[in-house]
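Here's what a typical entry looks like (superoxide dismutase):
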Amino acid sequence: MSKMNDYIHDVFKWNKELRAFLESENVDENNELWQKMNRMTDIMEGIQNPLDNHELLEIQNYVEELHADMENYFVKRQELGSVYVNPPQVAAGNHSLPPLPYAYNALEPYISEEIMRLHHEKHHQSYVDGLNKAEKELNKARKSGDFSLVKHWSRELAFHGSGHYLHTIFWNNMMPKGGGKPSGSLLKAIEKYFGSFEAFKKQFTEAAKQVEGVGWAVLVWSPRAHHLEILQSERHMLLTQWDTIPLLVLDVWEHAYYLQYKTDRAGYVKNWWNIVNWKDVEQRFMKASELKWKPF
Ligand SMILES: [Fe+2]
């Protein structure tokens, strides 16, 4: 009996969710799907306990039929490119520049509008373009079977792909009036592994200042070791510790600070701490730390 109740409860919930979904997808009210949905709602609302087997079977059949109809409808619409039932996958060569989550001048005086504009519109865009180009060329290679340039395009894929993904994290890792300290489980994890927030900050600062040439300082969560770590990445991808998830990243390429700070990378790194968006880092950490491999 309780299994039957559970089933009816699930169908009730499903019915409600489907109605909300059809509404959110602007499915025309004259569409057959709505008529079927309405009949389904009528059936559900008319249920009186206890259900006999015949009624239960009727509901089951109706649910299955409606499910198939919904699927057909949305598969057809998806083919036309008007709707995505699941979050869309980025097709090969189809990456795009994410908008900045704040105005170009929002991080002043720590990072000037001029730098932000150049960094986002020119540099980040060029990584997006480079990544798209590499993906398309590799797609072509897969189709033709000619992989003679795979080494070159794989390098481009890593360079521009890392550039695109890291910058996408970087913009959200910052905010106007940021800074301070993180809180909650991220703070606890920092203190547990690095000893204290101050020790972490000092190591991250030194790691950023001492990146060989151009690159990044990166705070990562290791799903394997189940602890945080600070890494340096030369360029975008050299020395990268794969199988880690970037949480907090700091761009120390010249284009990120040179116009304003000239050769004073240390000054830029020091000031950068005033615009860290710890809420964003916390959210990334909460999500990323759910991922735990078997430790070795
Ligand atoms: Fe950059």
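The longest strand covers residues 215-222.

More examples are in the samples folder.
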